[in-house]
Amino acid sequence: NSQLTILDSKRKQPSDTVKSVVDSKEKFEEEFVKHVETSLGRSMYNCDDLAAYQAASNTIRDALIIDWANTQQKQTIQDGKRVYYLSLEFLMGRAMDNALINLKCENNTRQSLNELGFNLEDVLNQEPDAALGNGGLGRLAACFVDSLSSKNYSGWGYGLNYQYGIFEQKIIDGYQIEAPDYWLKYSNPWVLDRNEIQIPVDFYGYVYEEHDPNTGKVKKNWNGGERVLAVASDFPIPGYNTDNTNNLRLWNAKPTNEFDFTKFNAGDYQQSVAAQQRAESITSVLYPNDNFESGKELRLKQQYFWVAASLHDIVRRFKKQHKQNWKKFPDQVAIQLNDTHPTLAVVELQRILVDLEGLEWNEAWSIVTSVFAYTNHTVMAEALEKWPVDLVGRLLPRHLEIIYDINFFFLKEVERKFPGDRDLIRRVSIIDESPKSVKMAFLAIVGSHKVNGVAELHSELIKTTIFKDFVKVFGAEKFTNVTNGITPRRWLRQANPKLAALIAEKLNDPEYDYLTNLGKLKQLEQFVDDEDFLKQWHAIKFDNKRKLAALVKELTDIDIDPSVLFDVQVKRIHEYKRQQLNIFAVIYRYLHIKELLSKGVTIEEIKKNYYIPKASIFGGKAAPGYYMAKTIIHLINKVGEVINADKEIGNLLKVVFIPDYNVSKAEIICPGSDLSNHISTAGTEASGTSNMKFALNGGLIIGTVDGANVEITREIGEENIFLFGNLAESVEELRHKHVFEGVNVPETLQVVFNAIEKEVFGPADEFKSLIDSIRYHGDYYLVTDDFELFLDAHKKLEKVYGHDGGDATDRGHLQEWVKKSVWSVANMGFFSSDRCIDEYAENIWNVEPSNQ
Ligand code: F58
User: Fold this and answer.
1) Which domains does the chain have, with CATH numbers?
2) Are strands 245-255 and 333-338 parallel, antiparallel or unpaired?
3) Cα separation of 19 and 350, whole Å?
4) How far is the CA of 20 from the centre of ligand 1 (A)?
5) Measured by CB atoms within 10 angstroms of the end CB, which terminus of the chain is less buried, N or C?
6) Ligand 1 within 6 A of CB of 140
7) Where are the N6-(pyridoxal phosphate)lysine residues found in this chain (predicted)?
């Protein structure tokens, strides 16, 4: 392409100089000092780790921006189809470490910083996490933008630039306390504030009709009552092993310059200014619920604000190249809806095409439905979005009309296909009649050409449960599966550099190309009987466990011995994820050990015949309004206090709760775990992605037959995972039985309840709701049904781990465990998010990567 060649030749000079910081120490140091002295206005004599982080980040960022600008220009000139990933959450974590890896300049940066008197790890630790997400859904979006860049797709993310990310969790007296996460305290070197990109977004107001004398038609117009500006902040997303650097555009809400003159003239200047300032509250804070929809007006405002700004940006970009050639729109644009949060985009695009661009309804609708696709992340009723019709009508009067029209035409089509089936029509209606509300998932299905679940089991479940009727209406082809994945750049190379290096060596891959071709891990199988290799593998795990133990010590002051089994459950706290099942089993173990000791059995005998030494490690945030989840956190902490203080027990059992679990901590916790828990009630966890992170880092899994555990088992082999529990197909029957025949608490669990009620772990009142929900309220999450199966699974796995614990030098009995670990990692290639993106590209977006 000649335009590109001209561009490249013109750009050579400046880009080469700036980009050389990635491989030249001199250049890095020169730029670093320049940033300290100019950008930061400080002197090198007074440069602390924080300033060093900022200067180093600015230095690397400058290089990144060259790639970013070139990528945008190339993509514009190539004019291919672009993918837009709309997600209300991007749980990015830290940017600097990731940039060093994707730009392959970690060594150069480390050495340069050393020469300047800094230590890379200390500098990296200065960066606050970009925690603009709750959990799995937000982190998935972050992995996906990494893969879009790394696999050379032209793909942007669109989201909100919250000033406060997910709250900081403090544990005080065993209770969760939430503190605001003002992550923008210092300037953020990884963002480009694009103050010139401003898009007005309207709310409220009224709809009026206009007669067009030329066509004789009636045109609908919306006159908004409140206007807010959407201002762009761009985050460059570097790909690994490629110059392709996509954009993540996050919007900020800002007041407009327009002024309410009626108020001003009435002398109410203060009020008028205050109203303007309220605009900023739209992007002020991330809603902290995981798998629960709170239905607040501000939340709906966030959704429309983000969707309107993003769509107008997309449409503007299209029109710049293709004018009003709308037929081409679906060849240029694919939009993925990450859950139903961006579903108003369907309505907004229809509004743009019909009201603003003058297209006929049907023509517009066929464009809309070819552009959108929707990903579902849950089957749980309380997490499915429903917005009251009144609220939608007040905030977005024209949109409500369009929703009604969409529903009307859709139901007409259903009636045509299934004449007389009134009940089907009632069931699939986008409008729920009581209470009157808009079902966003139904709107998303009707407005999309594909709907996908996030793991095989989950994708099957949505077809047979919540979306069953839509399979009948649209056919099964509309519904598909894309099993989730994780980026191996962050979750292997960055989190576990030593393991990544050992793998690179064994694969004879000094450039670490396997990180974008994760299937290559399979070659590790040939070393599974190689003694020296197993020794090295185990030593790395042991080293990572030491790091995790140091983190635990720093955050909780609890000592855990790295030679015991590290048994980890870190994820959002939720009854369906069943941290209560885990802590009840820990209590059972403790009580049993105490009983044995009281009968004169020695610690040595217990270790030999009953329980191996272990540390149970928990972490995760509870939604601030979720009482039951907070009670679980409190119980874990109280149990920990009692057990950890029990001198008789020593290192046979420890319980820790790591406060403020986040992406950066996950990068230390995942590599340092022997065993991780993914023990949701079967059928409730759509996929899970931390299961993949642990397995990729050589940890084994104890889990239920749920979400992606099923496919992990298929890939790594069932002899390498500890599965237990009732299957999804039995869940409904068991729940029914609980309600009609009562809950049967097994003897083992009864012992646990008794101890809690006898106040072994503090006032029993505190934990009453937890026990009552099981004993008297139907045990919805099947704790009683799975408890003893969980204990049995532990017995089995502890036999494999061996009875003496083990360190790097004493690992004879660990051989079997280490082999399972190697075997698992060798077969985790499937779970790279690169594979997900390729599947979306081929089956849903119809796009191809550019040849870089
Ligand atoms: C999670 N959902 C699923 N939702 O629970 C998990 O199984 C899956 O692996 C992951 O998505 C990625 O597909 C999830 O994290 C939320 O946090 C929403 C936030 C906004 C309110 C509704 C829940």
Assistant:
1) 1-78+104-122 (no CATH), 84-94+129-483+839-845 (3.40.50.2000), 501-831 (3.40.50.2000)
2) unpaired
3) 43
4) 41
5) N
6) yes
7) 693
Write the DSSP string, 327-348.
Answer: GGHHHHEEEEEESSTTTHHHHH
Please write the tens of the pLDDT for every residue from 408-467.
999 999 999 999 999 999 999 999 999 999 999 999 999 999 999 999 999 999 999 999
- 719-to-107, 355, 486, 697 alpha-carbon distances in Å: 39, 60, 23, 18
Strand arrangement of the beta sheet that strand 565-570 belongs to: 653-658, 614-619, 565-570, 675-678, 700-703, 722-723
Model confidence at 808: pLDDT above 50 = no
Q: Is 143 in the pocket of ligand 1 (CB under 6 A)?
A: no
Q: Is 303 in the pocket of ligand 1 (CB under 6 A)?
A: no
Q: Is 483 noted as a catalytic residue in this protein?
A: no
Catalytic site includes residue 340: no
**Per-residue confidence (pLDDT) for residue 298, from 0 to 100:** 96
Asked whether residue 134 carries a pLDDT value surpassing 60, the answer given is yes
Query: Is 572 an active-site residue?
Result: yes
Rounded mean pLDDT of 467-486? 98
Q: What is the mean pLDDT of residues 335-358?
A: 98
List the residue whose alpha carbon is closest to atom 9 of ligand 1: 688
What is the pLDDT at residue 811?
46
Ligand 1 centroid – CA 490 distance (Å): 20
From 291, 375, 456, 573, give the residue whose CB has the most ligand 1 atoms within 8 Å, as the site to mutate. Answer: 291
For this structure, is 592 an active site residue?
no
Taking the alpha carbons at both ends of the chain, their separation in whole angstroms is 13
Name the residue among 367, 377, 290 with its Cα closest to residue 332: 367
**Tokens encoding 268:** 């109410």
Catalytic, 689? Answer yes
Q: 685 CB under 6 A from ligand 1?
A: yes
Distance CA 549, CA 526 (A): 32
- Which residue out of 377, 578, 685 has the highest number of ligand 1 atoms within 8 Å of its CB and is therefore the one to mutate? 377
Respond yes or no on whether ipTM tops 0.90: yes
Nearest CA to ligand 1 atom 19: 290
Considering only 203-212, 274-283, 785-794, which range has the smallest mean pLDDT? 274-283
- AA letter at 320: K
* Partners of 248 in the β-ladder: 157, 235
Q: What percent of the chain has pLDDT over 90?
A: 91
pLDDT digits 0-9 by tens, 520-562: 999 999 999 999 999 999 999 999 999 999 999 999 999 999 9
Per the annotation, the verdict on 571 as an active-site residue is yes
Closest among 188, 138, 132 to 164, alpha carbons compared: 132
CA dihedral angle for residue 776, residue 781, residue 787, residue 793, rounded to 10 degrees: 180
Averaged confidence pLDDT in the chain? 95
621 C-alpha vs ligand 1 centroid, how far in Å? 14
pLDDT at 807 over 60: no
Query: What tokens does 41 get?
Result: 């206005």
Residue 144 CA to ligand 1 centre (angstroms) = 15
Question: Helix, strand, coil: what percent of the chain each, to 5?
Answer: 55, 15, 30
Nearest to 198 by CA among 335, 44, 45, 308: 308
Distance from Cα 686 to the centre of ligand 1, integer Å: 8
615 vs 11, 125, 300, 556, 675, CA distance in Å? 56, 26, 43, 14, 10
Residue 196 above 70 pLDDT?
A: yes
Indicate the pairing of strand 192-203 with strand 226-238. antiparallel
Check 377, 398, 463, 545 and give the catalytic one.
Answer: 377
Measuring CA to CA, which residue among 821, 678, 815, 755 is closest to residue 136?
A: 678
Is the minimum distance from the CB of 380 to ligand 1 under 6 angstroms? no
φ, ψ of residue 156 to 5 degrees: the values are -105, 150
pLDDT over 70, % of the chain: 96
